[in-house]
Write a structure and sequence with these properties.
Layout lengths: L1 H16 L1 E2 L5 E5 L2 H9 L10 H6 L11 E3 L1 H5 L22 E3 L1 H12 L7 H14 L2 E2 L2 E4 L1 H13 L3 H16 L20 H16 L1
Antiparallel strand pairs: 1-2, 2-3, 4-6, 5-6
Helix pairs in contact: 2-9
Length: 216
């Protein structure tokens, strides 16, 4: 069912975006690699199944000498398996984390079940990051202490290193808020979503450099 939904979405995109080329045939023109990266980081691609490099490689047969991509209908529709069409849950807000004492098992569950899906790091990378974080956390009677300041730091972290899925979740949440007539407020210490995450394009530019180093 999800693949059928993806097929319908990509077909609609083709019908709307494709333009006739010099030969009279229709194509979707993608300006450069950065535009493909934008598709990935904005949540268009199912990043649980495909990496950024796999998404880029999927357009190899459309690549032109000038770095642009000239995509035929067949080539475009072949990207259906890459498209994410699953549920879009509300974005997790680290500011809702309970302040106070946390046992080791509870803290581990928090960082892996709640925070890990918010960021684009491998399991190994995330493990190293959390290992360093835990070294600096204050403790009381053997339990870790989570403060409001720490929650703000975590909110800033997941905003800066947002996973494609989180960017998608935030975009949908902001769209629903706009449709409901809700106004975006100034940043406050009460919520992590005062202004939302960095724009998808900024996330793509910032993180593509990080991931590029990993995938070389």
């Amino acid at each position: 069912m999800s693949e059928e939904k993806s097929h319908q979405i990509l077909q609609k995109m083709w019908d709307k975006v494709a333009k006739p080329g010099a030969d009279g045939k229709k194509y979707i023109v993608i300006k450069d690699r950065k535009d493909l990266e934008y598709h990935f980081w904005s949540g268009f691609v199912d990043d649980d199944k495909y990496t950024l490099q796999q998404w880029i490689d999927a357009f190899h047969d459309s690549l032109l000498p000038n770095g642009a991509y000239l995509v035929t209908e067949d080539q475009w529709m072949a990207k259906v398996p890459y498209h994410y069409s699953g549920p879009i849950d509300p974005p997790y807000d680290p500011m809702t984390i309970r302040e106070g004492e946390w046992s080791e098992p509870d803290l581990e569950a928090l960082v892996w079940e709640k925070l890990k899906p918010c960021v684009y790091f491998t399991k190994e990378e995330w493990g190293r990051i959390i290992g360093e974080v835990k070294k600096s956390l204050p403790k009381k009677d053997g339990k870790y202490l989570i403060s409001n300041q720490l929650k703000q730091e975590w909110t800033a972290f997941v905003t800066t290193y947002a996973s494609p899925r989180r960017v998608l979740q935030m975009g949908v949440a902001q769209l629903k808020a706009a449709q409901a007539g809700q106004r975006t407020s100034a940043p406050s210490s009460q919520t992590g979503f005062a202004q939302g995450p960095a724009a998808s394009r900024q996330v793509a530019d910032r993180l593509s450099q990080l991931i590029a180093k990993r995938e070389r």
